[in-house]
TrEMBL record:
Record flagged with keyword Membrane: yes
Keywords tagged on the record: Membrane, Transmembrane, Transmembrane helix
Transmembrane segments annotated in the record for this chain: 55-72, 121-139, 151-167, 205-227, 234-252, 258-276
Chain segments carrying region Disordered: 1-38
InterPro entries registered for this protein in UniProt: Aur1/Ipt1, IPC_Synthase-Related
Organism: Streptomyces fulvorobeus
The protein, known as: Inositol phosphorylceramide synthase
Subcellular location, record wording: Membrane
Keyword set includes Membrane: yes
Domain Inositolphosphotransferase Aur1/Ipt1: 89-270
Amino acid sequence: MYLADSAPMGESLVKTEEGRTTATAAPMADEAPAPRRGGVPARLRSLRAPRRPRLWFEILLIAVSYWLYSLVRNAVPEQRAAALRNADWIWSAEKAMGIAFEETVNRSVNSVTWLIVSMNYYYATLHFVVTIGVLVWLFRRNPGRYAATRLVLFATTGVALLGYYLYPLAPPRLMNGGNFIDTVLLHQTWGSMASGNFKNMSNQYAAMPSMHIGWSLWCGLTVFALASAPWARLLGLLYPTLTLVVIVATANHFWLDAVGGIACLSFGYAVSYAWYGSLPHHLPKLVPAGRSRLGALSPGAATARSGSPRL
């Protein structure tokens, strides 16, 4: 014979059988089923979770991505007539706003030979060297923030390609009737893909937006946000500022091209925030070595981590 006392859901029910009393758990109403580990939400969370970057994959990814970027950028129709019309419009708009200083800066800096030659080499080399250097530093010192920060850079560059296609723009040095000096051509300095012997290898009318500004500002903000040394943070702020002076002094960009680069970088940060749910510098600096591809810790790593302080 069984006697069951009424009880709220989740509490014990009393069962009496031949003088013996035992307690059993009452069934839960509308009990939620356990989430499936292999479901789509779990896989999506695993993709969004920071994990340790793999060196061989990052080298391959960056090499292939830059090759595709160069291929697409140079495959965009040059549209010379439209690019020159847009350059005239930009120059007129800057004059109307009172910020048409490019010609003055270009001619003033060009009068100091050692300075303009240094800026020519700066324009040709640091764009790549510093960007790669910051990526390596992130990989080694901030692996938990690496993927999110790299996504900012990739999204920035990707949307810039759309700008090159939709808005061809001649740089100031190629304007019709302009008084700008092509400093690379004049001083015969090496390395620029925009002038001299390399001009036929690069799209001459892809000045808007300026990725020299987009990439340098990405480097500067990353270093400023993550570096601990005050001198490094100061350099992070100075680098995009000096880059702005260089792109104008060498007559490769208008001021407004820099605004386009900043807009692209803002888009890059928005994409990264939407994917990771946080700005890169707010993510954990380190990632546990035992994190699996599904974003969970292996049993050994979880046990080891439970007894150690959080980094």
